[in-house]
Amino acid sequence: MKTFFRFLLPLLMLGMAISGYRYLIASKPEPRQHTMPPVITKVEATRLKVQSYQVMLESRGTVRPRTETTLIPEVAGTIIEMSPSFREGGFFEKGELLLKIDPLNYETAITISKAALAQAKTVIEEEKARAVQAVENWKRLGKTGQPGDLVLRKPQLAEAAARVASSQAGVIRAERDLERTQIRAPYAGRILTKEVDIGQYVGPATTLGRCYAVDYVEIRLPLTNRQLAFIDLPEAYRGQNSAEEKKALSSVTLKGTIGAQTAEWSGRIVRVEGAIDQRSRQLFVVAQVDDPYKKDNKNRPPLKIGLFVHATIKAKVLDQVYILPRKAVRAGNEVILIDQQNRIRRQKTQPIWSDQNSVIIPATKGSGLESGQIICLTPLAFPANGALVSPTIDGVPPKKKKEKAPGHSPQQRPHH
Q1: Domains 43-48+329-395 and 75-102+181-214 share a fold
Q2: Domain locations in the chain?
Q3: Confidence of residue 112 (pLDDT cuts 50, 70, 90)
Q4: Per-residue pLDDT averaged across 352-358, rounded?
Q5: 20 to 30 Å CA-CA from 308: which of 12, 142, 188, 284?
């Protein structure tokens, strides 16, 4: 009997546990239901409108002088005088005396040349008198006919005249050599390097220094083939006269940094180089800045030779275009349109120009865009066609709607 109850009791307990589990399962409460609102992304947007756009081309270059000269004397001698302006960085005006070479030897040469000239003039006068006397002697001898050149002393007169001309040339050369003892500035400029000093003997092979003109400076700016399509260049053609070459020149703004100061200078494109660079496949245009060392009320530093500058060239104006921020155009020239139901749609475009901030799309039928359409400006990681958004258009927030978005039934999710 004990053995029977020992096996029966566990079976009874197991049955009761199973019955209790079934009761709990059968009497569990129904889960509560709630409605999930549709997912709507807030975005910034703008409405397309036809505009005009000023193309600005970016380039870089180094400032260089329009004229650079190596000063070399034409005569030899010792430097006895030097202008205070003849030092690195010194300014000078056209015709200003920079250096003076000892003129004593050349003053002496002028005296000797003048003496030789006086002697040659005396000889020719004597030959003229001898020629007159020779004619009289010819007549006294009773000879008839025309006397010969030797009788008239024409060869002697020609020789004497040649000596006079040679002596006159000697005087001119001596005077010119004396003038060359004074090294004067060929133009208004600035000293780049100084190679000599007072007391030094110099000759025609001696480099005195280097200088450059300061009336204007030039900057070579490379432009790519794409950039060349948006600028009118001052091209020159063979046989073209100066009147035909005159045209509106593109303005340039140059920006450079000297120390802790960043300054801007204004210039213009004045010419185009005659060949495309074979290494970079770019064409160089030359910008000119007039009077770069003039002090103005902007308190900016002078435009120094050798300074590396960033150039912004004013190019063509594009009419009938849409101007979009660069962030609104995705990879592959794709934009996101927002329709009247605030649903997005991806659209391919064909930009004609882009820069660091903007993308320019033509307002034509083939561009894929129309005036008045709404463009999403907020970058979306995975924009699915038909997704709902809440756009703020040109700073105007969307109007609040009480009804639910059409076409979307509420989703049911259990709440645990």
Answers
A1: no
A2: 43-48+329-395, 61-65+216-318, 75-102+181-214, 108-179
A3: very high
A4: 90
A5: 188
Rounded distance between C-alpha atoms, residue 40 and residue 104, angstroms? 98
CA atoms in the 13 A half-sphere facing the CB of 176: 7
Length of the chain in residues, anyone? 416
Mean residue pLDDT across the chain = 85
d(CA 160, CA 46): 97
Tell me if the domain spanning 61-65+216-318 has CATH number 2.40.30.170. yes
CA distance 48 to 377: 12
CB distance 406 to 343 below 8 Å: no
CA distance 214 to 209: 16
Which tens digit of pLDDT belongs to each residue from 234-290?
777 777 665 445 556 789 999 999 888 888 999 999 988 888 888 888 999 999 999
Question: Collapsing DSSP states into helix, strand and coil, what is residue 171?
Answer: helix
Give the 3-state secondary structure percentages of the chain, helix then strand then coil, rounded to 5.
25, 35, 40
Q: CB-based contacts of 32: which residues, under 8 Å, 6+ apart?
A: 414, 415
Tell me whether residue 199 is exposed, middle or buried, using C-beta atoms within 10 angstroms of its C-beta: 0 to 12, 13 to 18, 19 or more: exposed
Q: How confident is the model at residue 3 (pLDDT cuts 50, 70, 90)?
A: low
* Rounded distance between C-alpha atoms, residue 216 and residue 193, angstroms: 19
Structure-block tokens of residue 72: 């070399």
Tokens 């910008």, residue located: 287
Tell me the pLDDT tens digit for each residue of 397-407. Answer: 877 655 444 44
Query: What percent of the chain is predicted at pLDDT more than 90?
Result: 47
Do 56 and 186 form a contact (C-beta atoms < 8 A)? no
Contacts with 206 (C-beta within 8 Å, 6 or more apart), sequence order: 72, 73, 195, 196
CATH code of the domain made up of 43-48+329-395:
2.40.420.20
Nearest to 266 by CA among 215, 214, 307, 313: 313
Identify which of 286, 329, 64 has the alpha carbon closest to the alpha carbon of residue 192.
64
pLDDT of residue 414: 41
Q: What is the pLDDT of residues 302-314, one digit of tens each?
A: 889 999 999 999 9
| CA dihedral sign, ordered 288, 293, 294, 295 | positive
- Percent of the chain scored above 70 by pLDDT? 88
